UniProtKB/TrEMBL annotation:
<protein>
    <submittedName>
        <fullName>AMP-binding protein</fullName>
    </submittedName>
</protein>
<dbReference type="Pfam" id="PF23562">
    <property type="entry name" value="AMP-binding_C_3"/>
</dbReference>
<keyword id="KW-0547">Nucleotide-binding</keyword>
<dbReference type="Pfam" id="PF00501">
    <property type="entry name" value="AMP-binding"/>
</dbReference>
<dbReference type="InterPro" id="IPR020845">
    <property type="entry name" value="AMP-binding_CS"/>
</dbReference>
<dbReference type="InterPro" id="IPR045851">
    <property type="entry name" value="AMP-bd_C_sf"/>
</dbReference>
<keyword id="KW-0067">ATP-binding</keyword>
<feature type="domain" description="AMP-dependent synthetase/ligase">
    <location>
        <begin position="15"/>
        <end position="387"/>
    </location>
</feature>
<dbReference type="InterPro" id="IPR000873">
    <property type="entry name" value="AMP-dep_synth/lig_dom"/>
</dbReference>
<dbReference type="InterPro" id="IPR042099">
    <property type="entry name" value="ANL_N_sf"/>
</dbReference>
Amino acid sequence: MTDTSDKLPLEMLYHRAEQQPEDVYLRQPKDGHWHEYSWSQVLEQASRLVAGLQTLGLEPGDKVALLSKNCAEWFICDFALQMGGFVSVPIYPTAGADTVRYVLEHSESRAIITGKLDDPQVQAPGIPDSMIRIAMPYPSTLHTQHDWGSMLAHEPVAQPPAPASDRLMTLVYTSGSTGNPKGVMIEFGTYAAACRGIVETAGLNSEDRAFSYLPLSHITERVYVLGASLYGGVQVGFAQSLDTFIEDVKTISPTVFISVPRLWTNFRSRILEKLPQNKLDLLLKIPFISNLVKKKIRAGLGLNDARILGCGSAPVSPSLLRWYEQLDMPITEAWGMTENLAYSTLNYPYRSDKVGTVGKPGVHVDIRIADNGEILCRCPGMMRGYYKQESATRETLQDAWLHTGDQGQLDEDGYLTITGRLKDAFKTAKGKYVLPVPIEAMLTDNALIEQACVIGSGQAQPVALVQLAEGTDLQHKGPIAEQLDATLGHINRQLESHQRLGGILIMQKPWTIENDIMTPTLKIKRHLLEQHYADLDQRWPQGRIVLWEQDLPEKT
């Protein structure tokens, strides 16, 4: 077997196309039919696309943006941009026009390739008329000067050598939870190191199948799915639409399925709608029936073949992980950042006694805790720096260590627990600091609460803003209020006096990407909620548990 330990991503594509040319690599549903692409077909289409891009006057080093939901063509575009020596600039397919405009201008992109979009007219105003536009073959894309068919009509280029390992491969913009997104500069060599690390740690191989639906514009999907597919030979399938999502998962039957806390919570809610918790608990106590129930639940989600279930991007409640564990669906929690290519710690192989941690460092990753509690990371897969932000780069990268901004603790086995972010800590009117993240974790242990945000800078006591789990019936306010009040009392008995919550506000209006409260990676923009409710102690209604009906902050 050929050693691939030192190959760059483009060399891995060449290697796969040579060694297994007819093996199916990508599976894309379109118009109700599945389209399959072999390794050699993917390479050929990428070779034709790069020839088309070159005829448009694009030169090595030029930035080219990608704006699309996940699809086979996204992979092909990424490979073509590498072959042409272009720098890819992925943009979240849910980004608004202002974000699209900012990323295009800040990155100095010369062209944009657009594809599957839910509402392309939302992004259209953010793209300059003068920019070169190319469209993937989907009816939901933007109107462009150049279509996919004409671009692939060019003769394929000969396989160019892979760019040097220290050459800039991509600019991946952060989700912008505290302001404008930063452009993280990632080189070919560091990307390769992160991909090899996850493949080695998780033992991924050509027998595995992945389902790609988390945004490829986010570094996690780019490394754990796209990158792992190259280095592990993993087959990848995609979703046609939200309506067909579960059926598409069932068709692919992934062995590796990575998600976010919100989707795992939604899956649980759907299961409990059909099988209430008390009935589920009863069935799980009956040995023979228990196995049938577990198997049926997994099959209903399309995950009966999944050997690795993952969760990341945002904090997840330990109680949610325990709930899935009772169904023999252990979920590996992982932690990382765009700045270290999302590969740093993970609870794999899964250890039940380490639920509540984000796992231990992967291969070739070092983690240590600074004197102020900040988590520092050192690994081969780290960013070069922030594009056009030298001072921010110097603050974040010091003496080869990445200063993450997260706070945490390492146990005796080297497993990491996140306790909060340095910038999230706030002082109440009593002048003492409150770390909101551990309190939020205690709140989301209650299955009624899907999301929580603890605020209270300058106020007498911190308070919790919460979103209830999908499907919660607010017609029964009394029992809900009683449960939440019991949770509030239980939490406050564990906290010091200055940390105790003054109350819980149930937010009726959802926190979404569209109303700008959530980032594209589903992180809460804490600073916006903190600003909007800065005087909450002066307008707090009667009672400890309040159904809040006032407006959310205006989108900025």
